Amino acid sequence: MKHTSQENVVRVASFNIRVGVDSSLACVASDLYSLKADLTAFQELGQHWSLGISLNQCAYLAKAQGHMQYGFMPLLSRSWSMDPYQGGPFKFDMVLASTQSSTQSSIQRGSEGFDNSGYYGIGLSAIGDLCLEQALYLPYVADEQRGAQVFLWSLQGMSQPLRVLNTHLSVDETERYAQVLVITKYLRQSTGPLLMLGDFNDLPNSKSVQILKTELGLGNLAESFAQSPELAEEYSFSVKNPHCRIDHILGRGLKVHNFEVAQHIKSSDHFPIWADISW
Length: 279
What we know:
The protein is an alpha+beta fold. Helix content is 19%, strand content 33%.
């Protein structure tokens, strides 16, 4: 489902769905359908997780948007026997890089590809072709395991693939800074167009965001399109008390045709953000 007939322009979106517990997964799916994005990055996804509807949420939301390909990256896991809905305590384990052979982020086309545990993490879905380049398990100490997915996204009519990174960074400032350093180290030698989107848990002018922009040559797509400073800093969190922008879309080698914080959508605790781009 391509959102527009405008040649070689695609819509990309980022949405922290909070596993659908603020409304329902069906409401989230309906809202995503209305955005008509060609690529969507998700944060706080579940796959048979303790909270939210117990299914492969990445697959469900991809299908709702008409996206044929999707990739889920598990960051936390739990045994079904520990599901609080079954009477057990809420307990989860970190999904570490050393165990990712059986739970790594992968491109999926219908099969779930995981064992019988429950998982929580991030994901991405899109039209066209997705090729997983890397699943980065980011450093942490006090907060939970965080990660970043890196894909190459190919579309008919585009001259070259677009490298896309989806992430959900730590709420802890020190850990967030360390995670950004890992991301910049990985991408520093990359060439060509680059798109980075997700829930950064940090403000547009924060130290972490500025490092990403400086080290990787990225621009804030909101600032690139904005006609006024107020639009560039429009709040993405929270729906009940909008007070900050912590969800971002950054890019390099991209032309920005439109940008919006979709504040009419209230199915999560974050507002989704989207941009129309070409490269």
